[in-house]
Amino acid sequence: MNRLCNLLEIEAPIIQAGMVWCSGWKLASASSNAGVLGVLGAGSMHPDVLDEHIKQTKQHTKKPFAVNLPLLYPEIDQHLDTILRNQVPVVITSAGNPKKHTSTLQKEGVKVIHVVSSVKFAQKAQEARVNAIVAEGFEAGGHNGRDETTTMVLIPAVADAVELPVIAAGGIRDGRGMLAALALGADGIQMGSRFVLSKESSAHQLFKSEIQKAEEGSTQLTLKELTPVRLLKNPFFQEIQKAYDQGANIDQLKALLGKGRAKKGMFLGNLEDGELEIGQVASYMNDLIPAKEIIQNTIQEYHSAINTVEKNTF
Amino acid sequence: MNRLCNLLEIEAPIIQAGMVWCSGWKLASASSNAGVLGVLGAGSMHPDVLDEHIKQTKQHTKKPFAVNLPLLYPEIDQHLDTILRNQVPVVITSAGNPKKHTSTLQKEGVKVIHVVSSVKFAQKAQEARVNAIVAEGFEAGGHNGRDETTTMVLIPAVADAVELPVIAAGGIRDGRGMLAALALGADGIQMGSRFVLSKESSAHQLFKSEIQKAEEGSTQLTLKELTPVRLLKNPFFQEIQKAYDQGANIDQLKALLGKGRAKKGMFLGNLEDGELEIGQVASYMNDLIPAKEIIQNTIQEYHSAINTVEKNTF
């Protein structure tokens, strides 16, 4: 009996991460149909776009799905309204204080999961009475915690500190990682980067190709003075490094980043000037396959990893 | 059947890491006597000191033990001579090219394990015909790889790339971490920081107390331009950060580091001016216990983690 499956009414305790510019209704509905939790990334959607993606998701799956909602998003109230109006079953909140909206959502029957990067934030989320926690390590793509705590270190500490179901995120790309996460004390996993490299992800084809070509050490956490973010080391990343070398201050970094960099890189495929957010696992993935296959493979590998461990006994 | 246990003739596939200033004969013999591989850290020993520690280890245990040998060490030839003269059964090499000394050691019956931080270096170690590989992630204490790849990401990639037994290191402090490592494809684990906080470690009592007091985010990887090293954020660490803020170049960083900082901090207990090398797990450990208890706990937790995973089935 897995309590995350029970809570979310899914078959396998896997969440397909909601990611800016990569996870629209095609990916979310494909994931949900394959028995896990599909998630829409609202951080890159205006309210009317989110509304359309929710409606499409509902048309393409009868199973539960979620919306990922960065709480610092400027159009947050309209997003909340859109979510409630469409009776979205689960919301995954991130980047902000979960206290403010959790009870509003739960009163309307929405389950709330909050993303954290430390024990301290996990405890705060528990105090805010969320239903579950995603604990995300340093190796994850995109925005990231300031302490740089890795998944291996973070998960047992969070599992010891809270009673709630814990979902491990960061550095997981297959069933071996899934078993590792559950061994560390998690109830389930969230995979992001692995689903960016799926047929259904809305990442630009050129971005997907860059992920396939990524070598060891091809990603790095940067812009720690603003919001830490893990990026592929493309020309824009090199520009940031050059700014650091020249002693850039926070305002200069903000000016360099500007607006719309993630859309430019991940959605429009501008590999030179865009931000390409992806996790460390990008260095070790090549196969661009349907979400369903990613999920089936992960579950199968999970079970064979259990067999491997049993054979390795001492 | 565990092939690492077979190779090293130990009961549980655990290596107590050889660490500068922390792992002398007391820790190594206690670890070996408890059924795992105890390791002397030769990186902080002159040849006559190493000789004495090997002799003491042999007097206090009849079981296999190892010496950790940083290959860039200036007195390397005398160390190799000391190791061969004393018939040390296993050598763990790090920080250098394993090609040079592996066959010399193996011809004399010594098993050679090499420490790597990437798939590329793992493959090179395999080409050098070492007997096993330690793959160490970003969360580990002390000196560290340039790619910043975490244990969660590194282990499956290394396990896929080489045939040799793989030992996971970095971020492991209990049996949950051990099961995670084996799930990821490792054959065994190496724990360092966990053994720094043991009764038998030669770390200064004040350093041990600092580890017990460490909070979340208390360690950071720094001095990446020299040799990356993970340190507790003490006043010396803050001095480094200040130097960075003022745009210090490599020569200035080298001058600031100077010589003998690790001894000063870890062995002599100078918490202000010394280097305090420790892994991210320092934030989540408090109990200063005998090595034997660490090992027994880890094995017990490993088996109960298997039970937890089985109960979590879906």
Write up what this structure looks like:
The structure is a homodimer of 314-residue chains. By secondary structure, chain A is an alpha/beta fold. Chain A has 2 domains: 3-202 and 286-311, Alpha-Beta Barrel (TIM Barrel), CATH 3.20.20.70; 205-282, no CATH class. Chain A has helices at residues 3-8, 25-33, 47-60, 76-85, 99-107, 119-127, 151-161, 175-183, 193-196, 205-213, 235-245, 250-257, 261-267, 291-311, and strands at 14-16, 38-41, 65-70, 90-94, 111-116, 132-136, 142-143, 166-169, 188-191, 219-222, 229-232. An 8-stranded parallel beta sheet of chain A has the order 1-9-8-6-5-4-3-2. In chain A, strand 4, helix 5 and strand 5 (111-116) form a beta-alpha-beta unit. The radius of gyration of chain A is 18 Å and the shape is globular. Chain A starts with a helix and ends with a helix. The mean pLDDT of chain A is 97. Chains A and B meet through helix 7, helix 8 and helix 14 of A and helix 7, helix 8 and helix 14 of B.
Spell out the blueprint of helices and strands.
The structure is a homodimer of 314-residue chains.
Chain A: H1 3-8, E1 14-16, H2 25-33, E2 38-41, H3 47-60, E3 65-70, H4 76-85, E4 90-94, H5 99-107, E5 111-116, H6 119-127, E6 132-136, E7 142-143, H7 151-161, E8 166-169, H8 175-183, E9 188-191, H9 193-196, H10 205-213, E10 219-222, E11 229-232, H11 235-245, H12 250-257, H13 261-267, H14 291-311
Parallel strand pairs in A: 1-9, 2-3, 3-4, 4-5, 5-6, 6-8, 8-9
Antiparallel strand pairs in A: 7-11, 10-11
Helix pairs in contact in A: 2-3, 3-4, 8-14
